[in-house]
Please model this.
Amino acid sequence: MGHFISDYLDYAAPSTDAPRVYHEFAAFSTLSALIGRNVWSQHGHYRIYPNLWVVLLGSSTTARKSTSLRISQDIVRAVDHRRILPDDFSVEAFMEVLGHQPEAILYFDEFLSLSSKFGRDYMAGLKSLLTELYECKDHVKRTLRRKGKALDSTPGSGTSGKVEDCIINNS
Model:
């Protein structure tokens, strides 16, 4: 793992003319998604996990943000496809998925795809849930209206768990 970032850059950079910084952040996010809560830094009583939120900013089409994200996605999928969260969901469905697969990564090609969800009635509470998940608590509880039961998620790697990596791409 000591050379993961440089190996990733050697692999990804020749594939596209995307800026190197996109590949660097995609590499950190990929590594974070794959190591999950198996690595941490102890700070007093708290453990700090490799929980990343990354936004790649650049012009539409020409910046190659989506291409950079796709390389990361392909690598994570090859190692463990269950670690890639769906990008279309209700809050309840999201929590159910995290209950089964708490070490995960969430990709959006467009930042507006995520931010537009915050204003929908059925997505009420998503922004506060994502904020809570970022803290990497050991447990996150939510009551699911549809099933009338509480979901207690014990995060694996930074998700709710925690969405340990949220790669969001804004055009």
Notes: Strands lie at 41-43, 46-48, 52-57, 103-108, 140-144, 149-153, 162-170.
